[in-house]
Amino acid sequence: MNYKKLTSGFVAILLVAACATNPFTGKSTMAFVPNSEILPSSFQQYSQFLSENKVVTNTPEARKVDQIGTKIKVAAERWLQANGHPEYLKDYQWEYRLVESKEVNAWCMPGGKIVFYTGILPITQTDAGLATVMGHEVAHALCNHGQQRMSAGLLQQLGAIGVGAAVGNKSAETQQLAMTAYGVTTQVGGMMPFSRKHESEADKIGLLLMAIAGYNPEEAIPFWERMGAKSGGQAPPEFLSTHPSDATRMAQIRELLPAVKTEAAKFGVSFK
């Protein structure tokens, strides 16, 4: 049996049969694992994480995270309604939690489960700064980036099977070199650019959502300036990172601002 051809054929079938068009990007994306499987698992993992960490409640900061998260979610609903996708969020279960941690981070699981660490609040500083991060994280959920990463991981695993089959009759050293080369190539040339693309998509959609919610999207620039100052220039080169560089990020945001403001104006929101 030709495993290489079999693997290639299976991948081709997956690519044709398991794609979905995202309303926010207008692009066809990989969806090998359906949300009907992903979301229940995501919700369970989120609940487990909260049970194992210190969740901050009934403080001005915790209430602010929830309030701004709700406003961003409503902005997403308004955009979807206006663009003919009112049922898109029917399986989402939005939740916004503040968790005690010095880590400067926030994240979102599939289906709208969001965590802010207290360590990022000195960087967000303002409501608009917090909305910048919240919009970005909500956008990850709206674009099903978690689903896409899982799908890309499956493709990477299938490719590894194909490489292993292709060099199966070679020496152990050759097999190891081939698998190492495959791993490095797919990570640096595939998975990392894939992740950077997701980050840029989340920046773009997050800007729009914060603007529709009434937060000036121009405030995203000083937020990322503060993030850059916090890192102190210690980030790896962009091509070895899962995120765009701060300079790339801010340049993209500046370029997007006019179009974002124009779109927000359709929802009755304007900025000087």
Properties at a glance:
alpha+beta; 4-stranded mixed sheet; disordered N terminus; two-stranded antiparallel sheet; 63% helix; 272 residues
Verbal overview:
The chain contains 9 helices and 6 strands. With 272 residues, it is an alpha+beta fold. The strands form 2 sheets. A 4-stranded mixed sheet has the order 3-4-6-5, sandwiched between helices. The chain has a two-stranded antiparallel ribbon with strand order 1-2. Strand 5 and strand 6 form a beta hairpin. Helix 1 (3-17) packs antiparallel against helix 6 (145-166), helix 3 (60-82) crosses helix 5 (127-142) and helix 6 packs antiparallel against helix 7. The protein starts with a helix and ends in a 7-residue tail after the last helix.
Q: What is the succession of H and E elements? A: HEEHEHEEEHHHHHH
Oligomeric state of shown chains: single chain
The largest pleated sheet is described as: 4 strands, mixed
Structural class: alpha+beta
Helical region count? 9
Radius of gyration: 21 Å
Strand order of the largest sheet: 3-4-6-5
- Cα separation of the termini: 66 Å
Helix content percent band? 55-70%
Question: Which overall shape is indicated by the principal axes computed on the Cα atoms?
Answer: globular
Strand content: 5-15%
Q: Tell me the total number of β-strands.
A: 6
Q: Low-confidence stretches at least 5 residues in length (pLDDT < 50)?
A: 1-17, 181-194, 236-241
Mean pLDDT: 77
